[in-house]
Design a protein that fits this description.
Largest sheet: 2 strands, antiparallel
Distance between the termini: 45 Å
Order of helices and strands: HHHHHHEHHHHEHHHHHH
Radius of gyration: 20 Å
Helix content: over 70%
Length: 322
């Protein structure tokens, strides 16, 4: 019965999501599209970090690769967006396979630092390949044909599809032998190897799958915005944002990154409209408080049926001050 209610709730939320473009103004559609985008990115990041414990600080590199792969093909070779979309995901996955073989041998902060370094290197390469990428000037993509409502709806439903696909992939992995192997790696990689888990192969596959989703989202973003530059798509903005979202919701869970993305983006829009001058500072303080009070994210509160109380907040703050 409980599972049935879950399915009814999911069906209701899906119906609500489908109805939004037909009943809301363009501003709301754009905001929700952005939420879907970050939810898909955060979920894809969790495929490697939440499931294997390998904390990636430079996941934005795959987002940027997907965006530039689609943009270059569409602008230079005049291919349709469908080809650029697929190419964006494949390019990101192939890059993850290439760099994953050496860097996934590292652990802990060494892996985190090198992923950040790779993102910075790719940004520098993109800046210097002016004849191909446009360098610091960036690339302007062709605008999608159709009315404004059609364009808004197209990207809305594409981002919704990518988010749902990432959720399904995470759920299927969690309930598969592959997923159990990833969890074993996260808990104790040496023991997982002894038990017959090919840790290297599992990590590389998870890394490539995570990168592919980021690449697909990046390709969609490039066509949606119609203009990209290296500092935009390779910068720390996307990498840090998707990490914070996953932490707020709860890493290592299917719904945690999704919940975190909705909370983060909703508050971001609220603070941007109400506190324009102190937008980043106020939003940052809010996120720090959430992470301090719920170190394992909102999913911890849901699973444990825990409720925030004044005494609980004081206890948490006292623990961190000791």
């Amino acid at each position: 019965m409980k599972k049935r209610y879950h399915y009814i709730g999911l069906f209701f939320l899906f119906g609500l999501a489908v109805a939004i473009p037909f009943g809301m103004n363009r501003y709301v559609v754009r905001v929700v599209t952005s939420i879907f985008m970050f939810a898909a990115l955060s979920e894809s990041w969790d495929l490697i970090t939440g499931k294997t414990g390998y904390f990636s600080f430079g996941h934005g590199v795959f987002f940027g690769l997907g965006a530039y792969a689609a943009a270059i093909l569409m602008l230079r070779l005049h291919v349709p967006f469908s080809v650029g979309f697929v190419a964006g995901g494949i390019a990101a996955a192939l890059f993850a396979l290439i760099v994953g073989i050496p860097i996934l041998r590292l652990k802990g902060h060494y892996f985190a630092i090198i992923t950040l370094g790779i993102a910075e290197v790719m940004q520098g390469i993109t800046l210097n390949l002016e004849s191909l990428t446009g360098g610091g000037v960036g690339i302007t993509l062709p605008i999608k044909s159709g009315s404004m409502d059609e364009i808004y709806s197209f990207f809305y439903f594409l981002m919704l599809f990518l988010m749902i696909a990432a959720i399904i992939a995470s759920y299927l992995i969690d309930h598969s032998r592959f997923g159990y192997g990833l969890v074993a790696i996260r808990e104790d990689e040496a023991a997982a190897n002894v038990l017959g888990v090919n840790a290297t192969l599992y990590k590389i596959l998870a890394y490539a799958l995570s990168a592919a989703f980021c690449g697909f989202v990046g390709a969609t973003y490039a066509y949606w915005i119609t203009y990209i530059e290296p500092s935009d798509v390779f910068g720390l903005k996307f990498s840090i944002s998707i990490i914070v979202m996953a932490l707020v919701g709860g890493i290592g869970t299917v719904w945690g990154p999704i919940i975190g993305a909705f909370i983060f983006e909703a508050f971001s829009e609220l603070f941007w409209s109400k506190f324009l001058t102190f937008h980043n500072a106020s939003l940052g303080v809010l996120m720090i408080l959430i992470i301090l009070l719920l170190p394992k994210g909102f999913m911890e509160m849901i699973y444990s049926k825990r409720r925030l109380s004044l005494s609980g907040i004081i206890a948490n703050l006292r623990k961190y001050m000791e």
